[in-house]
Amino acid sequence: MSRLGTLGARLYRGEVGYDFVAKRKIWYGISILITITAIVGLAVRGLNMGIEFSGGAVFDTKKTSVSADAAKQVAEEASGHTAIVQKTGDGKLRIQVSELTEQKSRATQQALAKKLNVSTDDINTDIVGPSWGEEIANKAWTGLAVFMVLVVIYLAIAFEWRMALAALIALIHDLTITVGIYALVGFEVTPGTVIGLLTILGYSLYDTVVVFDGLKESAKDLTKQTRWTYSEVANRSLNGTLVRSINTTVVALLPVAGLLFIGGGFLGAGMLNDISLALFVGLAAGAYSSIFIATPLVADLKERDPQMKALTRRVHAKRAAQAAKADSAQDEGGPQDADAEDDEPQDASPAGVVGQRRQPVSRNRGGRGGKRR
What we know:
By secondary structure, the chain is an alpha+beta fold. It is built from twelve helices and six strands. The longest helix is centred in the C-terminal third of the chain and has 32 residues, at 271-302. The model is unreliable at 337-373 (pLDDT under 50).
């Protein structure tokens, strides 16, 4: 078995672990800082809306030897707006100008035809009105709202309202970071961007729901024991699915990274950037929020429950009594049997403790000395 597989098995069995829940204030602080940066970027730079949302015109030319820079200069001088020019593999140009009226579109078409030395009929012009983009945006917002409502209802029924609230906060966290990075990078917002944002909603919830399912099973009859608090059980559930979450995220990020960095970066296929950036940032943010935000937040909310508060007091009181008994036995020089009266199974180490679990002392069951033959 590989080292990663061995580590995953030990994490699942509780032999090793990292206390994510105990350090939740650090993760909250990091998330707040990233979210504020994204919001500031969104407020200062704004989103670079495509013509599907702001209105404008797209000019498609035939195969030409004119450079993209020269066509861009002509289009911007004729329209008075910033132009985006893409050269396709067959030598054609696609020129996109936002916020153009029909009159300005005709003037730009004529200027391009003159520069390319072709007739105006050889330049295909598509004019997009802003009302169409507004309709798409409204439908996207409606779909997002319906999705979130259904997710909250499902999680509240399948798990509990605290988990539903934590998942919703993590989801909003992921969307905010993704949109903020879109504003900072300056990529154009197109219908592909909207599709990417809607796609990451499911990915963002996947790891969160997996952890919540394990936590639900582990927390059954939790108040009937005095070995672990709810936060410790939550941390054990998180460690048990940690390697699987990392593997799933890495496998999902690799093809998306290929689209973003190779397809959009090296090959110049700009249309791939619209959806691949949203997917890349959203997948990474979703993996982060499921580990560092959702589960610690559930533990925070659950620890405020009176039953869980009472459980925490009992667990701490029992541990203090065992520690005192162990110290007393050590001072008297006797055996340290502080756990001898513990009537609960010693099947795992406390959550968040790194190291191998204690193994029971072997006893001679046959009643005879010597080695077993």
